[in-house]
Amino acid sequence: MTVAVLIGHGAHDVLMPLFNAYAFATKLPDAKFVLYGDAAQAFLYRHAGDFAGEVLEFTQ
């Protein structure tokens, strides 16, 4: 894969283990991994503003 990838993940997500997201991020050369330590799978709701900022920064 040759495109940049932004991976966001909640540290307490029980549906998708943290290791899977981290392993995916380490295998992609242009990946940015953002971890929300106090969130689960719904980190997009809990940290909507923070993640929106990450997306804006990543896409510029």
3D architecture notes:
By secondary structure, this protein is α+β, with helices and mostly antiparallel strands. The chain has one domain (5-59). The protein has three helices and two strands; from the N terminus they run βαβαα. It has helices spanning 18-27, 43-46, 48-59; strands at residues 5-10, 31-36. A two-stranded parallel sheet has the order 1-2. The protein is flat and about 30 Å long. The two termini are 20 Å apart. The mean pLDDT is 92.
Say how many strands there are.
2
Helix tally?
3
**Terminal Cα separation, in Å?**
20 Å
Order of helices and strands: EHEHH
Alpha carbon gyration radius: 11 Å
The shape is flat
Unreliable stretches covering 5 or more consecutive residues: none
| Broad structural category | alpha+beta
Strand coverage percent: 15-25%
- The proportion of residues forming helix, as a percent range, comes to 40-55%
Largest sheet: 2 strands, parallel
By oligomeric state, this entry counts as: single chain
Mean pLDDT, nearest integer?
A: 92
Strand order of the largest sheet: 1-2
